[in-house]
Predict the 3D structure of the following.
Amino acid sequence: MEDITDLPLDFHPTRQLFSALKARGIYYQNAPNIPKWQRDMAVHQWKLQATIEPEFVERLAVFAYNKAGEASLALPRIFSAIFWVTGGIFLFFTTKRLVSPDGALLTASIYLYLPYGVFASRSFQPDPLMVMLIAAFIWASAGWEDERNWKFAIFAGLFGGLAILVKMITVFFVAGGTVVVVLRAKSLKEAFKDAQIWTIAILALLPIALYFFYGIVLDGFLTQQFGGRFFPAMLIQPSFYLRWGLKLDAVVGYALIALSIIGTLIFPKKKNGILHGLWLGYIFYGLYFNYHFSTHDYYQIPFIIIVALAIAPLGEIISKTLRSRVSTSFFPRLILLFAWTLALLGAAWTVRSHMRAVDYRPLAESYREIGDILRDEGSVVALSKDYGYRLNYWGWLNTTHFPSAGDLWYQEKRGDPQSFAQVFDKHTKNRVFFLVTDFEEWEKQVELREYLLANYSLYADGENYLIFSLSE
């Protein structure tokens, strides 16, 4: 909750603002006392966004907006934090069943206090809800592996199906976990005859199948949403695996990766089916979504669950070692508790310091200033962060996005390279102004910078923006 009312720009703002624009449009559609131009623009910006996953978190945000009477972005971020912590509870009880209470303590500690995870847990996007549902699926699958009863079979199917529906990438983890757990319990022939296994499969796949049928066959909004995610050529490029490793380092760190591998090797053999299934699903997930996997670190969020679960045996080993060296059980537990508390306080303070280090609120005023200058002046092409979403949300300004260096690289990878002249002409045709708010890109794109400065006059400028007139 630290500084939760600040602008959500501390963690993948593009993805968060994508959801924010949708939620605001849905809310403004029927909210009272909204100026007509703002209502129309908000609804337009909402409907302009692509639809891939169902709008669960956006609709939940609208529910909160209606109760609060305002579109405060702190509200959906609070929901996300609740989802994330609930996922930690599921992981704790799962690990308690699979390893021990001390192992569960280490798992929950890593999951809840890993700095990247703390920032991810406050983000307005489906991922915290997805993580909670994956954790719930793991809990149910571990219970089914132990007890083989209908209760856990139904829970495994329901939680797995909801996880896939919330974010389709979880199909890799649900499928991987289910396949390995089932084949550990029964032969393939026996599995095909087991009603509980069929129940898990049907409950897991039916929701997404119905969603696909509606989105592809009935409505058609999903037909264009699955391209540009898999590049076979990348699988034989060493740079892809290097970038994969670098993203993992940014999310969990190499030390925890190494410890999780060790933990996987020493995990209790009779109970490691779900963990091995998660590893298998994660590898296939990375190989399929290879472009996004190596360029977007938040695609690694599910790996936090795997690391936290895999490292549990080390918690049990540490606890056993301390107990074996001291005659009573009180002192080693006290030492362990003290060390653990110190580590968690240190992690919490580090994260808090990062949250307090930057105040993004003044940027909102800057974007509003830009909107006031350009809103009624004509069409605008913008070199801006987050595809112009910041300008859309706080500036109430619709813009055409000028591609970043990364966008141009992605376009080239998809087999459509273009010269600077082609890119510039395409994006500035019939535009009146060229707006610059992303000065990192401004420095990178030397040809663009030199061309604008040489051929167009500066219409207005401020601390965080430059505006060129394209009509002069």
